[in-house]
Amino acid sequence: MAAFSTLTRFTFNSIPTRTHSHNATKIHCSNVSVTNTNASENHEITLSNGTDSLNICRVLNGMWQTSGAWGRIDRDDAVEAMLRYADAGFSTFDMADHYGPAEDLYGIFINRVRRERPPQLLEKVRGLTKWVPPPVKMTSSYVRDSINVSRKRMDVESLDMLQFHWWDYSNSGYLDALKHLTDLKGEGKIKTVALTNFDTERLQIILENEIPVLSNQVQHSIVDMRPQQKMAELCQLTGVKLITYGTVMGGLLSEKFLDANINIPFAGPAINTPSLQKYKRMIDAWGGWNLFQGLLRTLKKVASKHGVSIPTVAVKYVLDQTAVAGSMVGVRLGLSEHIKDSNAIFSLVLDEEDVNSIREATAKGKDLLKVIGDCGDEYRRA
User: For this UniProt entry, which residues form the secretion signal (predicted)?
Assistant: First the structure.
């Protein structure tokens, strides 16, 4: 579906507090086509808006962990790991201009693919990046120069997707920036324009200004169901899709933290990375560690029933939600891999009993929309 052709405003008074998909195999979003890579596995999805479209893998490799705050990574090991992910079918990489060397690593990786892999793989590889500018005047030359930096670092003529973030909604310069990005798309410098961490109200304003965006990347997990409360309905009405991050909460949604006592030093796994610390704060806002343990036990029961891991269940549950096209799983390139767990996502079908048990466990927590606000508000509130 194309962007709004008329300035129509939607109201959300009828949206329930929590909405979930009962059908574990259906993608509830308009104008989406799914490409089967295996008989029973939907690895890929096509995001589309008007004449713009982009195929991505439904499980994306998130590269925030290359930013340096997780410790040093070896460049050669990291690129080799990216090649293994791509060879295994996980060929969509998500990065940002401020994720340390992420864009540079992608540039090295894509050149390796060009030289060492068949053309069929190169056609499937996607590099999604983000632009997170300071709130300066968004002139055409400033936007162009900024995007050219990412193009050079990633060594591509045209960025597959540019996801745009804006810090301060009181500054309407985000509309100017998006219009200039759309111009660059028309010039072939960018293939598709998207958003990250925009709320429902601003997404609607952007679409009313006839700026075609394919997706909005937002925090979304079994704990954080805010995107299903307002954002998903607008996405259904307009064809915009959701790409989710924080879906395994930096690893907190895993067996590693089941029955873990994090209050006693050295008694359990440490909350010692930016992602673990970030999502631990989400757990605190949602209901606290003890309540979270109840959720983990529910997820472990579902996981054991299907012979998979807790992270596999966590990602599948979010992928089954309304308007969700893909979910991010962070990669510790050269240090650990999640290829096996990610493959299991595509064969996992959560039945009604599974969904109901997860719902019951999450319903015990607080409504994060009331505690934090809409998607992205965690970045804009003191």
Answer: none
